[in-house]
Model the fold of this input.
Amino acid sequence: MPNDSFDATAPHPRQDEFSFDVGTRLTRPDGSVSNGRTGVITTPHGQIKTPAFIAVGTKATVKALLPESVADLGAQAVLANAYHLYLQPGADILDTAGGLGKFMNWSGPTFTDSGGFQVMSLGSGFKKVIDMKSVDQSGPDDAVAPGKERLANVDDDGVWFKSHIDGNKHRFSPEVSMNVQHKIGADIMFAFDELTTLQNSRGYQVESLERTRLWAERCVAEHFNLTDARVGKDYQALFGVIQGAQYEDLRRQACRDLGAMAFDGFGIGGALEKENLGTIVGWCAEELPENKPRHLLGISEPDDLFTAIENGADTFDCVSPTRVARNSAFYTPHGRFNLSGQRYKTDFTPLSEECDCYTCQHYTRAYIHHLFKAKELLSHTLISIHNERFVVKMVDDARAAIEDGTFHELKERVHSRYYAGAPDPQGLKTVSA
Ligand SMILES: [Zn+2]
Done:
């Protein structure tokens, strides 16, 4: 716990080892300047040109992909999960290995999220946070999804939770999260926060937001202690996480509270309904310090990405590109399709004729369809390379379009094709072969 004299707004001298430089501002179709922008994040392990899609490597691996492939497909950084690595193999192992990047043979920038999402999703949010489509507050605040056992309990000091691996009891607090994340050694860490769901009452959101604010101060204090204590380590940046669900006043207040603290950047977290995503990111972009990067946790759908970029988010992460790949779903400019369909058995075209990824240069839909049907692991690898490349490139294209003033045209073109709802137009000529 920080002592009473700790000032969470006072910066640490080593914070200048991390920086963010704003580049081109996005203009709206009417010519006014919006919150969207390009930029460059500089970390001890290299730069990230923003907007950027960050590949998710939850357990220090982007599932089914060699780190060399992740770099080749253009991903600039990898985000791992502090909760998963704390449980397995343990943060001390990563510390001894020289940190996350060395441990997994990834030389670029790395992120870890705080574990708050995973810990909290074992409790009241379990199985609800994944599907936040409704704002049904009729149930009790501590309701657990039907058929699920509560595995986490939150109090003002931290959270008790049971490991999803062996059921053992663990304690996470702001201080524990900071210690774990310092040992994991990512370039960018997130403050420990309480995740709420859209089902929580406004009263609970207010209470939770105050808890997250106090935890944020404790995270800054512990982070600076560890920065001083762990001599000889690269500086690790700390991002505060903005909660507040769908309430404008709560989001803005959280931005002002955390924005005044000595964070290096910010995460926009928690419950977001798709239709409010742009509005909420916009509130945050208006309130947060302009010279600090903003990360939006957990999005990858093309419309969400463009909305988030337009409203001022700089980086994003999502497990979807590799997760759906393992179910044989692949992205194309005409939408997402599933390679398990019989029509692909004789489709000797690439996953996308417009794609420049390694998979599309060397493999056909027919071959990958066969691998999937034969339950061969290579199908996961080949589709994952393509899907990650698809999302990374879309965000790269958006960055280039902000720079050359064609963002709105690009957005319109991507949307009109991806969401047309037309059947996959590619490969028809080979179906009857
Ligand atoms: Zn491809």
